[in-house]
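dumping this here before i forget
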Amino acid sequence: MTIRVLLADDQALLRSAFRVLVDSEPDMEVVGEASDGAEAVELARRERADVVLMDIRMPGTDGLAATRLITADPALAHVRVVMLTTFEVDEYVVQSLRAGASGFLGKGSEPEELLNAIRVAAADDALLSPAATKGLIARFLAQGDGAEDEERDPARSDRLDSLTVREREVLVQVAAGHSNDEIAERLEVSPLTVKTHVNRAMAKLGARDRAQLVVIAYESGLVRPRVE
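structure:
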């Protein structure tokens, strides 16, 4: 199946470079280019995109606002957003994950990293850059500023009660950035069993994907940030 990719960045030259890279792969194609967030949302709907490479900082409707619009639209439930950042320690990374993005990638990443990120997001297989993303989530949630507290969903802690013991164990492993295969080995079960537990946890917690599970694991207190 061909992965339909939408490019959203206000720099035309960068979009052109991404298009050449993506279109060179046999399993994916660029179906549209947007120069701002509003256009990205419109094209995601019209072109039936699977993955949106979304720049965080764009004029008008920025990447964060566009991601919230996409993830809030039931008709776009299948769309996965990968945020593109100039710096991988961008302070907006956690906000983008809370907005519904599946992960993030630095603009300076290698071509193979970008292509792999698209495939990973399309497959809902694992969190992008698991170690880096996990560390950022832990650090920013640990800061706990007022704006973040207002965004937190107090019901999420209660929803954890609906998880089975095994689902909680799997959720902790997901928050640690482990893949299904790695979790299967750690818990001595099959990868298919792990996938089933992950899907059930997502359904019970109202998470779109694994990235959202990581945020919920930290926000609910199931996993505590480690101070390094």
